[in-house]
Design goal:
Blueprint (H helix, E strand, L loop, with lengths): L4 E4 L4 H13 L6 E4 L3 H9 L12 E3 L4 E3 H12 L14 H14 L18 H6 L4 H5 L5
Parallel strand pairs: 1-2
Antiparallel strand pairs: 1-3, 3-4
Length: 147
Amino acid sequence: MTKPIVVFDGECALCNGFVSWLIRHDNDGVFLIAGSNGDVGRAVVAHAGLEYAMTQSTIVVCDGSRGLVRSDAVLAIMQRLGWPWKAAVAGRLLPRRLRDAVYAAIAKRRARIDAEDPACGVPPQELVELWRSRLASADDIAGTRRP
């Protein structure tokens, strides 16, 4: 099976910032990434059996057997990064409804973050090579099992 794929809104400054953070902290290269507006991102979302429209407001993680969204996606990412980030998994003790409400409150604020920057969707200069090396391809999707 291929690596888990994180699908994010490449036009959202908050999402881009999160993916930059992820790449900086994913020292073992556990995750691949795909922008939701690209062919690969759309194919990953379809493969996970999810509606494309949801990618405009949430991060999706497809681990080959399922598609995770909102707080479940974030917690799955944190769990695979190791310490100290793995400690965030304690958030699973909270009801999903509460976790997702917090996620929604943060997502609602993302519209206030300037995404009109022409650099939006472009990784920071120091991450360009690493970012490109983590981009998912159609072959990565083909290597996953349908949920």
